[in-house]
Amino acid sequence: MTQHTIAVLPGDGIGREVMPEALKVLDRVGQIFDIGFRFSHLDWSCETWLATGSMMPPDGMDRLSQHDAILLGAVGYPTVPDHISLWGMLIPIRREFDQYVNLRPVRLLPGIPCPLAGRAPGDIDFWIVRENTEGEYSQIGGRFAEGSEAEGVAQTAIFTRRGTDRIMRYAFDLATRLGRPHVSSATKSNGLFHSMPYWDERFEKMAAEYPDIRTDSHHIDILAARFVMHPDRFDVVVGSNLFGDILSDLGPGVTGTIAVAPSANINPEKRFPSMFEPVHGSAPDIAGRAIANPIGQVWAASMMLDHLGEGEAAALVLRAIEHMTADPSALVRTADIGGHASTSACGDAIVAALDRIA
Ligand code: NAI
Ligand code: MG
Q1: Looking at residue 9, which CATH number applies to its domain?
Q2: What spacing in Å lies between the alpha carbon of 329 and ligand 2's midpoint?
């Protein structure tokens, strides 16, 4: 039996409600495929911060580094400023563990109403690969001539060859692995004078190494429009930190609801653990009512399985999710997708679907 050690960080709000459902699904799929999980339950959250003044203990990163992967719920608490939760935990994990790929599937699930007219499951099914460590989100820059008429700021974007090449290589390798030999690049070389022409240059160089993969480049503005008008045209889309950030919310947006979407922060070389989480946050407006949709968290667990080399188990979990969402019964659907099921009833329905199709 293979054993995986998983750091489980439910976090705040609905993170604590959806996480048990993902663990339920992992336990069941583990029994089916003879995969063992050792879960470390870590109660690090904004509530920890309120009690102790820090989001995680001083040896937090060390402890996380002893795991094969991290499964995160969501962090954020109404009385705690968002930069505390972000810079106190999420950003250190993403950066210190060199999780330079943010990977998000964009897929219309059966039974989830699509905001785009005339689209059915199968029409929207692609992947966004976002650079997660450099680019526009840098701390380089500053404020000058403060308080005077000449006051201004400079914010510098950083694109290294190493950083640019490795995210593009990941995108091309992903397209190869998925058997979807088509990579689209998000650019803006008609506006940004240095960074995006460089991005384009590296994209062309990388494309030359993968002659079997079709490529195209889109300026970010028209690309956003194409996500809405022609989402069926995409397979793998690669973008810088800022462009990828925007696209990776637009993507799940066109598939109906962010509550079902997952996100992976990956260190592809596996030198450090990667982190898997739903796209949504801690949803304080519905927290504590047991009505949160657990699908994003369960799908994140499926992405984690794939990363751990358990591809078959990962695929089965995704199929079970699709069986569940295709079920019109209000008894298995949470309120956000038109039912009145509790979080755990929805989780149970996914487990039942697993058993039916395994
Ligand atoms: P949010 O994603 O928590 O909620 C947005 C809306 O979607 C709310 O109306 C919420 O009820 C609904 N929603 C979200 N997930 C749902 C689910 N699973 N089932 C049913 N409905 C769901 O975003 P918001 O309100 O902007 O942020 C709330 C807190 O979460 C903030 O503190 C924010 O910083 C944090 N946050 C944390 C993230 C993370 O941990 N990576 C990501 C996004 C936000
Ligand atoms: Mg975002």
Answers
A1: 3.40.718.10
A2: 32
Residues 69 and 167 in one domain: no
> How many structural domains compose the chain?
2
Ligand 1 centroid to residue 282 C-alpha, Å: 5
- Which tens digit of pLDDT belongs to each residue from 5-55? 999 999 999 999 999 999 999 999 999 999 999 999 999 999 889 999 999
Q: Closest Cα partner for 134 from 61, 202, 230? A: 202
Query: Is 263 inside any structural domain?
Result: no
Measured from the alpha carbon of residue 73, the closest ligand is 1
Query: Which residues constitute the domain of residue 214?
Result: 125-254
d(CA 96, CA 290): 34
183, 153: one domain:
yes
State ipTM.
Answer: 0.97
Query: Which tokens is 228 given?
Result: 């809405």
**Ligand 1 pocket check for 207: Cβ under 6 Å:** no
How remote is the CA of residue 34 from the centroid of ligand 2, in Å?
A: 36
Atom of ligand 1 nearest to the CA of 75: 40
For ligand 1, whether the C-beta of 285 sits within 6 Å is: yes
9 lines ligand 1 (CB under 6 A): no
In a domain, 163, yes or no: yes
Ligand 2 centre from 145 Cα, in Å?
Answer: 32
241 Ramachandran zone, left/alpha/beta (phi>0; psi -120 to 50):
alpha
Q: Which residues contact 98 (CB under 8 A, 6 or more apart)?
A: 133, 267, 271, 272
